[in-house]
UniProtKB/TrEMBL annotation:
Transmembrane segments: none annotated. Pfam families: Bact_transglu_N, Transglut_core. InterPro entries: Bac_transglu_N (IPR013589), Papain-like_cys_pep_sf (IPR038765), Transglutaminase-like (IPR002931). Gene3D superfamilies: 3.10.620.30. Residues 171-237 form the Transglutaminase-like domain. It comes from Paradesertivirga mongoliensis. This is Transglutaminase domain-containing protein.
Amino acid sequence: MATFNIKHITRYTYTGFVRDSANQIILFPVNDGYQEVLKHDLQISGEPVVDTYKDYYGNEVGNFTHCQPHSELEIYSKLSVATRHKPLPIDDMFASLQWTDLESIKLKIPYVDYLMQEHFEGHDELKAIVERERIRHETPYQTALRYTTYVFENFKYIPGITTVETKLNEVWKLKAGVCQDFAHILLVMLRLVDIPSRYVSGYVCPNKNGMRGEGATHAWVETYLPGYGWLGLDPTNNCVANETHVRLAVGRSFADCTPVKGVYKGQARHTLAVSVSVSYEDDLPEITELVDIPVEKPSGFSVNSFQLYTERMEQQQQQ
């Protein structure tokens, strides 16, 4: 069992006073047999009441409104999480029986939601590759590992080359991106062979092994295997996502798992700063520096902090 201490700060600083900042946060780690939340402190400017509920995908979601005029909004999530190694699939069922099981559930909830495809111009080209790479006698587990390796080997990890606004078609043409892009491509491949698969947001924790995305927000995939359940696959690092990965939320894509999104009233421009630190140690140092991003307010439109935050979250994923 490993215990991780994680600090995640999101800070908006405004050039003037704004009010009625209404936000939705998905910053509550999954709590199950393989991931136990030992402690979670959430501090928000103005100390608003946070109303929580479970969404359709089972994520814990919080809503709050900071009504009073303010020139800064900070969301500080500090947590300790213990993770346990999840045994890997034994994979001793006949491959044909497993594919038949997948065929029988593809129109059932919730699996049908995790088979929905996002159309893009490169879809037919990728479909041809999926068929070419597939080996018919392999099990869904073996196939999923094969496609994970394909993404890892055929896409370059280049921080800064994409943003959350980058469409799948552009990622496909670039054959490059960051963890979010790798996850989205793998989702398409797995869904093309009718393996239900979902997007996962969270953190990958340091293990002195040089993993991409260590100590920052991260994204990977969970795929459903008959007789086993959901298996995490990290195409950015070509590995099974297990005890070094801390899960925050799942969904069909990044849009279902956005850590923070919201709006506010006011004409002030603002900067956004985000920082994440992860450690095995109990004495995790305080975050003293955040990276600021100057933001120009689009002419004729109110400021949408959701768009600005997701752009920053992408940059965090690129680290």
